[in-house]
Amino acid sequence: MAKLAPSHLLQTPLSSKPTSLPRLSSTLTLLDDLGHLGELKTLSSVKAVHAQMIKMSNNNKMDIKAKSLATCYLEFGDSRSAAMAFFVGSAHYLPWSPFLEEFRRYGNDPEDVLKFFLEFHNRGVVFDSRVLGFVLKLCGNLKELWLGLEMHAYLIKKGFDLDVYLNCALINFYGTCLGIESSNQLFDEMHKKEDMLWDEVIKLNSKKGRWVKVLELFSNMQLSFAKPNSATIINALQACGKVRALNEGKQIHGYVLRWGLESNLSICNSLISMYSRNDRLELAKAVFDSMNDHNLSSWNSIISSYTALGCLNDAWIVYYEMELSDVKPDIVTWNCLLSGHSLHGSYQEVLAILKRMQDAGFKPNSSSITSVLQAVSELCLLKHGKEIHAFVIRNGLDYDVYVGTSLVDMYVKNNCLSFAQSVFDNMKNKNIFAWNCLISGYSFEGLFEDAEQLLNSMSQEGIKPDLVTWNGLILGYAMKGRHKEAIAAIHRMKSSGLTPNVVSWTALISGCSQNENHAESLKYFLQMQEDGIRANFATISSLLKACAGLSLLRKGEEIHCHSIRKGFIEDVFVATALVDMYSKAGNFRSAYEVFRMIKNRTLASWNCMIMGFATYGSAKEAISLFNEMRGAGLQPDAITFTALLSGCKNSGLVDEGWKFFDSMSTDYNIAPTIEHFSCMVDILARAGYLDEAWDFIQTMPLKPDASIWGAFLASCLTHKNLEFAETAAKNLFELEPHNPANYVLMMNLYSISNRWVDVERLKDLMRKVGVKHSPVWSWTQIDQKIHMFCAEGKPHPDLGEIYFELYHLVSEMKKLGYEPDISCVHQNIDAVEKKKMLLSHTEKLAITYGLMKMKNGEPIRVVNNTRVCSDCHTAAKYISVVRKCEIFLKDGTRFHHFREGKCTCNDCW
DNA sequence: AGAAACGGAA
Could you tell me which Gene3D superfamilies the record lists for this protein (predicted)? Predict the structure, then answer.
């Protein structure tokens, strides 16, 4: 209840005149009837009148006078005298509850009200049910459990327990003091359930957010033929929205029509919200259109339906209709628009709407601020974020827990952890959202000590870490390659009593594959299944990423089948991941089939497919797909151009490369990144334009990194340009001294040039720097088993048979003109040894094993981790003729598809 | 009318 008495009155000296007394006039009118007008401007004059009244106490209008007098005392803040006046004058037959309510309204503490009640109860006043109900309510508010329970006992003893008002009060009291469950229990035990009682218990459950219970009660209420009031219908409709109970909502709609309640605006507005929360915009709209009258709330409900469901343009249309019908928007209207645009990713519009609402004279409140902060953090507009932070402080909105949490989140998302921490420290009430934001902020930055420390402090402050807290930690650990700690976190959350769900496990799995730990991804997927957790869309996309990373075509195919069975294939993320998996694992036909099947392709889907063609060496298809994409109205991004340029690189298209490189900045306003520059260097140098590539490197606006020099060095080797190569190598040895590939390339170049002294010098350098050789391997999958062929380490068990087959094969190939290319061996040994060396290349072993084990007609698929040498490349072409087979070879940089003596790379790799 | 967790492309 609002305090009507200005508090300064209580501090005013009793003799001075109160300035304005809003309720005094009515009191005076009453006293005026009794002939005492005019004098009552001070407490002392009230007292004087009181004294006079006591003198003529035989007056039979004493009760009315007592009430007026008591009210007068209350207005002057003398509650004690007020109560006494009331008691003396009228106690036994006047209803006390208006007095007590009045008493409370004048700003007296509820404790005092209770004290008075007890005092007069002890003086023998017998109160009616309304007073008792009022006092019970106070007991609830003050958490006076024992007094309330005593009153319950007293009521039963006096037979009051049949009074519906009191029963309502009791249910209410139990709810506030002992929890909603005891209210529900008490309600169940009540024999006679009047309509009001149903209304009360539904109201309480609705307040507590027990939506399922609300619906259960509402349905039972109808079964007992009780008639709900409109508040109850509104509560039930709200419940149908919250738990997405569309059928129940429709039934209530029917009920509303049957009882002719469709003229009740509030009920109709609730119907609109109910349908909107059940994603049935057309039904929401139908209710809105059927209404004879619309108030502001109705307009807000329908606008909110449109914005919540992402129909932003329609929302604006309704907004203008509303303006035309002369209803002015309020802050709620603006906040609906803000939150809808923010929710559906129209972040720029959020900022525009903010400006519009401010121009219209509305000051953003805490709700507006949360939507705006979300947009600001997604747009990475840290500067705007800080301005809003200042606005929040100026306007005292920082006490709002939503605003505080949104600020922490905004700073976390903009990598501003120190600000996030300081906002967090200043929050008066921290809820679990704020803790989780900050913990995941530290975790994603790899600052695990801070994250773990926060985890400890939140437990100490009595906030139990939840699934989201743990997910933040798990994902952070997994993304930073610390998968042991990530799985440990899964176990820790188990021992804290939480059951990791599919999101927790997916965080682990996806974190590992984001960090290229694909094998771990697959391992943890198995553990997840052992834990009895089923995969969802997100898990499947992460797994496909792992399969793509490992080129595990068979595994990917299994997941594809599973996705079709479970309907995951409908998800654009899953479908796009499939396209990527198939292109990386070497099944372009399937990649293309899946791509064509996707109904709602996103930019990523197009990019994956363009990239697929590019790595496969089909630059023409990549380019025509790009044109198709443009025709479909999609704007390319930086990744599209990386794909196009690497297509040009793999197909040796210099002119097209230049064209796309220029076009991305001039036509599409996309600044080239280091990857684009690196592609361009590769395109130029590979085609033999080494001088142009050199100039390009010298004039590029970004500092050349290892990818630039690496691309350049590889082409220097192809074109045997020692001078450029040495410059490139010098840079590379500084930029990445521990990468063995650079030393190997350089040694190869020296060996071709017969500069064995330099080869030895580099070997020494590698030893001095401590560069480790990376193992060279190839593998092929036969049935369910992966067969590895490593240059070093454990040999394959069937190696003898493989060499037997390979010798046989080579002699057949020689008949067709094959000649071993010994220039591929960069060791200072004689030609016979070099030829033996060539036979041991892991690609040849894997291909041969494939030939031995594959059923007829099946293509052979081999994955290799280096750049395939020209002898193996030539050999594969001959093999495809001799054995009439197709060979897919994925090497460290691209794809080769050998068929009928030709390779799709056109010998350019 | 309002906040946080897992997913695809280089």
Answer: Tetratricopeptide repeat domain
Listed in sequence order, the DSSP H helices in A753-821 are 756-769, 799-815
Encode pLDDT of A568-598 as tens digits.
999 999 999 999 999 998 888 999 999 999 9
Give the model's pLDDT for residue A30: 44
If chain A, 909 residues long, is cut into consecutive pieces of 10 residues, what is the mean pLDDT of each piece? Answer: 30 32 41 47 71 57 63 72 62 54 66 78 75 83 86 82 83 90 92 91 92 94 93 95 93 93 93 94 94 93 93 92 92 94 90 92 93 91 91 90 93 91 90 92 93 92 91 93 93 91 94 92 93 92 93 92 91 94 90 92 94 90 94 92 93 93 93 93 93 94 92 90 93 91 89 88 91 87 89 88 92 90 80 86 93 86 88 92 91 87 80
A409 touches strand B (CB under 7 A): yes
CB A479 within 8 A of CB A514: yes
- Which amino acid is present at A589? R
Three-state DSSP at A232 gives helix
In angstroms, the Cα distances linking A328 to A34, A324, A341, A741 are 49, 9, 20, 70
List the Cα angle A45/A49/A55 in 5-degree steps. Answer: 145
SS3 state of residue A233: helix
Q: Residue A828's closest CA among A733, A748, A732?
A: A748
A40 token code pair? 């009552």
**Confidence (pLDDT) at A83:** 67
Contact A341, A349 (CB under 8 A): yes
How far does Cα A27 stand from its chain's mean position?
59
Residues ≥6 apart with Cβ < 8 Å to A647: A610, A613, A614, A618, A619, A622, A623, A653
Pair A512, A486: CB distance under 8 Å: yes
Edge to edge, the sheet with strand A902-903 lists A785-790, A777-782, A860-864, A887-890, A895-899, A902-903
Q: How far is the CA of A307 from the C1' of B4 (A)?
A: 21
Q: Is A246 exposed, middle or buried (0-12, 13-18, 19+ CB in 10 A)?
A: middle
Q: Is A516 exposed, middle or buried (CB count within 10 Å of its CB: 0-12, 13-18, 19+)?
A: middle
A639 contact to strand B (CB, 7 A limit): yes
The amino acid at A867? R
The long-range contacts involving A745-748, CB below 8 angstroms and separated by at least 24 positions, are A745/A713, A745/A714, A745/A717, A746/A713, A747/A826, A748/A717, A748/A826
Closest CA to A77 of A21, A35, A124, A39: A21
Helix (H) or strand (E) holding A453: helix A448-460
CA–C1' gap, A888 and B3, in angstroms? 50
Domains of chain A: 430-534 (1.25.40.10), 554-600 (no CATH), 602-667 (no CATH), 673-774 (1.25.40.10), 777-903 (no CATH)
| Cβ neighbours of A892 (radius 10 Å) | 12
Measuring from the CA of residue A374 to each C1' atom, give the nucleotide at the shortest distance. Answer: B3
Res A95: pLDDT: 53
Calpha distance A51→A842 (Å, rounded)? 115
Residues 364-403 of A with CB under 7 A from strand B: 365-367, 370-371, 374, 400-403
Pick out residues 878-897 of chain A having their CB under 7 A from any atom of nucleic acid strand B: none
| Closest to A870 (Cα-Cα) out of A757, A752, A723 | A752
Give the list of residues 6+ apart from residue A511 with CB closer than 8 angstroms, or none. Answer: A474, A475, A476, A477, A478, A479, A483, A486
Looking at residue A62, its pLDDT comes to 52
Other CB atoms within 10 Å distance of the CB of residue A510:
22
* pLDDT score, position A835: 86
